[in-house]
Amino acid sequence: MSQSTGRVLGVNGNMVSVIVEGDVALNEVGYITVDSDGEEKRLKSEVIRVRGDRAEVQVFEMTRGIGVDDRVEFTGELLAVELGPGLLGRVYDGLQNPLPELAAQCGFFLDRGVYLNALDRKLTWAFTPKVAVGETVERADTLGIVPEGIFEHRIMVPFNRYGSYTVRQIASAGEYTVDHEIARLADKDGNEIGVTMMFEWPVKRAVDCYAERLKPEDPMVTKVRIIDTFFPVALGGTYCIPGPFGAGKTVLQQITSRNAEVDIVIVAACGERAGEVVETLREFPELTDPRTGRTLMERTVIICNTSSMPVAAREASVYTAVTIAEYYRQMGLNVLLLADSTSRWAQAMREMSGRLEEIPGEEAFPAYLESVIAGFYERAGVVRLRDGGHGSVTIGGTVSPAGGNFEEPVTQATLKVVGAFHGLSRERSDARRYPSIHPLESWSKYRGPIDRGMVEYARDALHRGNEVGQMMKVVGEEGTSLDDYLWYLKSEFTDAVYLQQNAFDMVDAAVDTERQRFAFAMLFTLLTRKLSFAAKEEARSWFAELRQRFIDFNGAKWQGDEFNRLHKEIVSTIEARTAGTEENAEQLVGERG
Amino acid sequence: MRKVYSRIEAIAGNVITVTADDVRYGHLAMVTTRYGKSLAEVIRLDGNRVSLQVFAGGRGISTGDEVVFLGHPMQVSFSDNLLGRIFDGRGTPRDAGPPLEDNLIEIGGPSVNPAMRIIPRNMIRTGIPMIDVFNSLVESQKLPIFSVSGEPYNELLSRIAMQAEVDMIILGGMGLKYDDYLYFREVLEEGGAMSRTVFFVHTASDPVVECLLVPDISLAVAEKFALGGKRVLVLLTDMTNFADSMKEIAITMEQVPSNRGYPGDLYSQLASRYEKAVDFEGAGSITILGVTTMPGDDVTHPVPDNTGYITEGQYYLRNGRIEPFGSLSRLKQLVNDKTRDDHRAVMDGMITLYANYRESVEKRSMGFRMSEWDTKLLKYGALFESEMMDLSVNIPLEQALDRGWSILAECFAPAESGLRTELINRFWPSTGGSPGSVAATAESGSDGETA
Predict the structure, then answer these.
(1) How far is A410 from chain B (nearest CA, A)?
(2) N or C: which terminal CB in chain A sees fewer CB atoms within 10 Å?
(3) Of B302, B333, B364, the domain-final residue
(4) If you measure CA to CA, which chain B residue comes closest to A363?
(5) What is the pLDDT of residues A423-448, one digit of tens each?
(6) Which one of B26, B268, B300 has the shortest CB-CB distance to A405?
């Protein structure tokens, strides 16, 4: 591709106008050469608008010191990431610069204009070929494999090699670096190309090398009860977590990144506090993944563009993250992408749109906000690969709505495209009810591991209890009938022992599906029973005591002595009070029996 | 010899436009008017049209005034000579001392590499129980004080400046009333804390552009001291004025406003300042405590709202007290397990009881009959408010914990406190006199007898 050059024409914040000689593509990367304290720096930037021979570029660095007439070199390439073995366990910024390596070179601060290789060129990988000379291959077909931690990392035909190729040469089993040529392929005209273990893919284009996209059906277990039971997420699905500040969005994301039953987790810390990333950064290498026995870091990639880092790179960071997720999906793995927070990403778009002097939409967000958000979440999905295997990318994004008001554009645009909504509430977090997902406002379109009818029944109980609770605020306890009062107690009980979960308790912090089924069945029994009490006070103390036992039960080791004892106690306590089945539950209970 | 431009083409608010060559973005210029000289910063380049933001404001600038570009960005002198001095937002002295011009450093430098950050681990003691006991301030934390105009937030800040156990204080004042500025100066001079303090003060009557510089200049200096091994506490008051100045400039520059007139990059702008809070491994640290006044006591106003998303918790100042509900130091868990065994328990226990007290107060105001338990709570709440929450209370953490125990002992039986038996056995004051909390019992003893 031809490589054009240009000269700086104007600077406005992180947007620079350039007069271009030659051709230029939208989203093409260019470098602005700037003299900074006698040292020449090349600042990475991306073309975001072209008008005649004038291009507007967004600069991924601070623009201080750029002057009119500074030279700009375009690369002819779109903004891309390096894909290959060695991504797992790494910490990158939004442009895939490895941060620890950057620190080793530059010290405490992020010097601008320093770009390092995303993949280590010196590390060798034990390659095993999987194709023979003469075979025909297409893009994303496996040429060989290398072990990467616990995974079998497929070395694939680069996704940007369209058409079919014949294998002319393939490297024998052995140790190679990522930039070593491991195969030579010939297209139908006989032109040969060399293939290494790494290649680049433009971040803003979805990877589309699969046979077909499937409907997300299987649940992605997060081990958070309220999510898995009430608002499940499917592998390959999308969900969002909007919430006001302090409601626990990031904590919920961190818990999910630890416990979710997926192969790989990509954490995209997008425009949030650096301190929160540090916790993940420092703790993951120490924590063991119960599924594999290795450290959590070995299945994690962190893309970190915190709030004080340049805004344009923040916009790129979510795309960098999703591209890496898609790459691992192509190996038949289940990948979870956690983006925290998509509002900061939307704000980065808003800043740029303002500088481009585009006509603003609601709250000054650009008019294309919705389609861009939809485009991002649509990169999630389960796919059937051409070899018959399945891979998935699940996307969970937090949203930080201004003033905690869900009526704002980013939340609304997100709700249109996601499959599950976990709305966090200020009241619940103030009352220390964690996780603070609102049980009545949230929703999910996916099927969870627990029977839908039963879950619906429990939600109805919550609704009814909430109504009684609201009423009681007006008429007082005295004005509430015992029957209504019992529904109130049942819903409060459900909240205390099932919806809330103690993240600091070794056992209660992560509850697997089997245990959730077990505990939910116990809860369901209570909810469907008609209970007999003489007075409200008696009912209240009975429930208080049962609650204490249930909480102890939640903290007891699965099927240990304590667990069995408490289970028996709870069941017999309920039986002793039972005076029949609630009318609306007879059918459900009957089906189960 | 630098080129002098003597033709100003446009003047709008504090922004002037000249036609000039070879100018770099973010660099400074000197504008000479008949009222004196002022610095100006390049904020937009469009071909050879250069827009500058004049620090002294646009008033009185004539189209025939001279502009000379200096060829460097905004700088501030950095040395130990800064200590005890008072400057304005541009870094020129407000006190009688000489101007400082050696060892210039740039302000608004790059962000710290997240990979170099460490998990915070040291508590900063302030002698204010509502902070030390209930929401400990942690080194490298960034915390705002959400407050309504009229609350004594500057008094609180000056007390923290006097008492906080750090190596030095940098006080950045933005849009301060002149009286408040004098108040800060007086308090710190009288308390003998001036020698460890640097002031960068923009008062309400100063040009608005200078207000924008205060956080950057304060934090640039703090960063240098921190890299030199100092534990620096940066106090910023009031960040809402800073945001309002940004709004003013943005509107002058005809930027599209996003929410209530604030520019779309409000979050990023605030974040790039607050995120300067850091603990440098092997060197010092920066901790930021800023005041954010909430217009109309509305926490959903863009400034407190965006701040809340950036900072690690917040203090609510209400009715002259740090409110225990809503106030939160998110990092306190990292330090309050290392202070004293009873710290966490006292913290949680007393707040739970105080929450119950609030409910009783509500019940009482609705005319319900007070039970015996309610009466106990009412007594407890009153004591808690006067002995713990009052801003004048100034005692070290250990003494505050002891006082907590003696308040509990005065109002409740041990079992009613909801605290763990093991802690009660160790810390519950024995009847008659309590060990280790002489002051607390002496003060509250007399109330107890009359009740």
Answers:
(1) 13
(2) C
(3) B333
(4) B258
(5) 999 888 877 788 999 999 999 999 99
(6) B300
